[in-house]
Amino acid sequence: MASLTLTRTQRRRTSLGIQYGIFAVIVLLFALSADWKQLGASFFRLDIAASLFPDIITVALRNTAVFTLLSFIFGLAVGLLIALMRLSRVPPYRWLGTIYVEIFRGLPALLWLFMVAYAVPTAFPEYQIAGGVYGQVTIGLGMPAAAYMSETIRAGIQAVPKGQVEAARSLGMSGTRAMLSIVLPQAFRIVIPPLTNEIILLVKDSSLAYVLGVTATSIELTKFGSDQVNARVNPTPLVIAGLCYLIICLPLSQLVQRLERRYQKSR
């Protein structure tokens, strides 16, 4: 008589099959119970979607990408400086770096955008941020992003074996040259995946630019979508704006996964 006892592999496969079956039934019931006609009329009006082009790409999507890129470059530069200050042997530098990180991580980016756009001009009437809205978004989003990136960079620097620095110093390199030539290249190789995640966060944070009173030429995706919803009394523009965010974020997510796999293989 054949044994009815299942092996561990068979039990696992049976359990997965049952779970997949339950999930398929739930999805099927949901699909059959939904009013797809009403859903399409409310959220997927093709005529409204078509009328959004090309402005949603040539203006809104472009500005979202520009805001993200400028904020990331600014945040990366400041974040590197803060990370080096946090690792400095000079106590005041460490204190300043720590204060910066704690303050900018503890307050929302929306508040910093508001301060850059309104508080700074009020306090310094003669001071004008170069670039208008683009400059304000760069600083307003880049400063809190720098706090997060500085901690990522600091962790990457500390992950580089100290023996390599000691070997470089024994060959006559200065501490600065060893940092620039040996430590930072390896640290950035380690932190590229989490830094790419920061770009994804900045893509979504760029929607906060609405507090700056953006114009028709500097409008970004979320503001563009919400304005079109008010004008057309239909949420289809926000759905299309969401798809545009996915156009940016999904390739970046795939890039993060690929970089993480490559890093794991190289270890």
UniProtKB/TrEMBL annotation:
It is found in: Cell membrane. Pfam families: BPD_transp_1 (PF00528). The chain crosses the membrane at residues 16-34, 65-87, 99-120, 238-257. InterPro entries: AA_ABC_transptr_permease_3TM (IPR010065), ArtM/GltK/GlnP/TcyL/YhdX-like (IPR043429), MetI-like (IPR000515), MetI-like_sf (IPR035906). Keywords: Amino-acid transport, Cell membrane, Membrane, Transmembrane, Transmembrane helix, Transport. Residues 61-256 form the ABC transmembrane type-1 domain. Its main location: membrane. It is a multi-pass membrane protein. Belongs to the binding-protein-dependent transport system permease family. This is Amino acid ABC transporter permease. It comes from Fodinicola feengrottensis. The lineage of its organism: Bacteria, Bacillati, Actinomycetota, Actinomycetes, Mycobacteriales.
